[in-house]
């Protein structure tokens, strides 16, 4: 028998949200969405508030990414929604199933100039899978359920609904749709077999696994395929940690050697974008494995591109019945390059320099981060080093802004991570530039007793811009920040704690104090502005 629900619009929405596994609400207070707050409060549904709407959406995205279920942000009308657009866009590029519910000025006097009256849909439609205005209370459960199903259907992504005042404040009575998990997409078996044959017949194959491997719960299938076919694996995004660093087929440092020498490059669950040379790997043939046909690359022509449920495709690779070329020599060659690079990294991470080199910060972090720590990157230059020196030990423990590259994710991601995993370390790696976007939301963390550790690499510049601009023009402008700024004092003023570190030898005790503090704690590390991440430009 179909369940029916009745109540005001907020209660109708909450019933549908709960049916789809939504467990918390992130928001910034706004009168247009009061009924959603009333529903949450009276039902004991967890509600977390922030100081800027972008943080609410980023918190919802962190929940979605870490837990592989919908995350929810509730934004008031007008500027509430527009302040969340960067978060929506990041979720769109990251394929994160985020639902944003927006308030909306009353429809019955639309065009009269109500407070915060604007049509949100033209703004959010390009960066969502679905955007809709729900005009009647009775239609809210249907709309919320359909939107969440769309968000969870591969290729996953954010969805948006807004409610005019009279719809969300009105009382309604409606059927509650059953929450049904999207059916897996079956890839073309011939395309799967073609891809598996290319990998098995290759002499120097490489797998690059990205975020959709984790989002699609395909980590075990990836390991099985790599082991069955004896293929070295590199990872990016939330694919990091899919194979633990100790696994004989897990590689991180030998990527240049691998991609310059490979004859088949298998890219699984990540786009062929600027992070992967736009899919140009010289003479190597490319196998692009995606979770939906819409994700097939259009700017290159792969040798094969199976599209569908990644677990099923990777399991088929593992069970490939044909002959397989021996890859032991290739794996050994990459292991030699990997070990040599690790030795160089170890030297850099132990450097006793003044000012402190970013590599040394990560050398110390490697000693204190637990295997299941949630590590969050929010920055450019400083966080680029994190990708180089930190090796997540488990899948689902690394959060970065993704290919959209939006700064300001840090505090929202930290909130979502702490709510999702109250018993783990949560560490935000933040450039001093990125600190300007969201550091005020430390107050939200303090007030709601959500402790995290924030490590700021403070070099007083926009590192990924200053050095390339100097190389291009012989000068730089708009690339300097206040040197030595006391971001730790900002956190202290907001109710947290922190300290500034100027000497490499003081890093370890500072980090130990931070993780033992039980409050939001910022370690402000003064790093060398001349030590820029080794790439000429971030404009590609």
UniProtKB/TrEMBL annotation:
Residues 9-121 form the Thiamine pyrophosphate enzyme N-terminal TPP-binding domain. Residues 192-316 form the Thiamine pyrophosphate enzyme central domain. It is an enzyme of class 2 (transferase). GO terms for molecular function: acetolactate synthase activity. SUPFAM superfamilies: DHS-like NAD/FAD-binding domain, Thiamin diphosphate-binding fold (THDP-binding). Transmembrane segments: none annotated. Pfam families: TPP_enzyme_C (PF02775), TPP_enzyme_M (PF00205), TPP_enzyme_N (PF02776). Its cofactor is thiamine diphosphate. InterPro entries: DHS-like_NAD/FAD-binding_dom (IPR029035), THDP-binding (IPR029061), Thiamin_PyroP_enz_cen_dom (IPR012000), Thiamin_PyroP_enz_TPP-bd_dom (IPR012001), TPP_enz (IPR045229), TPP_enzyme_TPP-bd (IPR011766). Its EC number is 2.2.1.6. Keywords: Thiamine pyrophosphate, Transferase. Residues 378-525 form the Thiamine pyrophosphate enzyme TPP-binding domain. Belongs to the TPP enzyme family. This is Acetolactate synthase. It comes from Micromonospora harpali.
């Amino acid at each position: 028998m179909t369940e029916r629900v009745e109540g005001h619009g907020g209660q109708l929405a909450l019933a549908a949200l709960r049916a789809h596994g939504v467990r918390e609400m992130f928001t910034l207070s706004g009168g247009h969405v009061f009924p959603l707050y009333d529903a949450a409060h009276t039902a004991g549904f967890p509600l977390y508030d922030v100081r800027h709407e972008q943080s609410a959406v980023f918190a919802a995205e962190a929940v979605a990414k870490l837990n592989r279920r919908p995350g929810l942000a509730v934004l008031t009308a007008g500027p509430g929604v527009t302040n969340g657009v960067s978060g929506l866009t990041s979720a769109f590029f990251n394929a994160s199933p985020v639902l944003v519910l927006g308030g909306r000025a009353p429809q019955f006097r639309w065009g009269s100039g109500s407070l915060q009256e604007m049509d949100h849909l033209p703004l959010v439609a390009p960066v969502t899978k679905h955007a809709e205005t729900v005009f009647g209370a009775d239609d809210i459960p249907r709309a919320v359920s359909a939107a969440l199903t769309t968000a969870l259907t591969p290729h996953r992504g954010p969805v948006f609904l807004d409610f005019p005042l009279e719809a969300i404040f009105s009382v309604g009575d409606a059927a509650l749709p059953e929450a049904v998990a999207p059916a897996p997409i079956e890839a073309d078996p011939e395309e799967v077999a073609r891809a598996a044959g290319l990998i098995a017949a290759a002499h120097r194959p490489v797998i690059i696994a990205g975020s959709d491997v984790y989002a699609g719960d395909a980590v075990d299938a990836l390991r099985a395929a790599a082991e069955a076919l004896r293929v070295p694996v590199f990872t990016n995004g939330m694919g990091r940690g899919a194979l633990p660093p100790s696994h004989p087929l897990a590689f991180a440092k030998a990527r240049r050697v691998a991609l310059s020498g490979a004859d088949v490059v298998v890219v699984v669950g990540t786009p062929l974008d600027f992070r992967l040379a736009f899919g140009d790997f010289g003479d190597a043939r490319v196998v692009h494995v995606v979770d939906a046909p819409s994700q097939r690359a259009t700017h290159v022509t792969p040798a094969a591109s199976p599209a569908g449920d990644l677990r099923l495709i990777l399991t088929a690779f593992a069970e490939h019945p044909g002959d397989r070329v021996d890859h032991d020599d290739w794996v050994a060659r990459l292991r030699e390059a990997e070990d040599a690079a690790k030795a160089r990294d170890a030297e850099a991470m132990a450097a006793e320099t003044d000012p402190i080199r970013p590599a040394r910060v990560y050398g110390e972090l490697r000693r204190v981060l637990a295997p299941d720590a949630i590590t969050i990157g929010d920055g450019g230059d400083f966080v680029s080093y994190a990708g180089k020196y930190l090796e997540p030990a488990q899948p689902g423990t690394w959060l970065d802004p993704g290919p959209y590259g939006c700064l300001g994710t840090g505090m929202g991601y930290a909130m979502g991570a702490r709510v999702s995993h109250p018993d783990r370390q949560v560490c935000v790696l933040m450039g001093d530039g990125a600190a300007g976007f969201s550091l005020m939301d430390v107050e939200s963390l303090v007030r709601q007793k959500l402790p995290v550790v924030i490590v700021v690499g403070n070099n007083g510049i926009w590192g990924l811009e200053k050095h390339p601009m100097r190389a291009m023009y012989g000068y730089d402008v708009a690339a300097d920040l206040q040197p030595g700024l006391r971001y730790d004092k900002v956190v202290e003023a907001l109710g947290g704690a922190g300290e500034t570190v100027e000497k490499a030898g003081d890093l370890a005790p500072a980090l130990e104090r931070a993780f033992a503090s039980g409050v939001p704690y910022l370690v402000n590390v003064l790093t060398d502005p001349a030590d820029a991440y080794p790439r000429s430009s971030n404009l590609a």
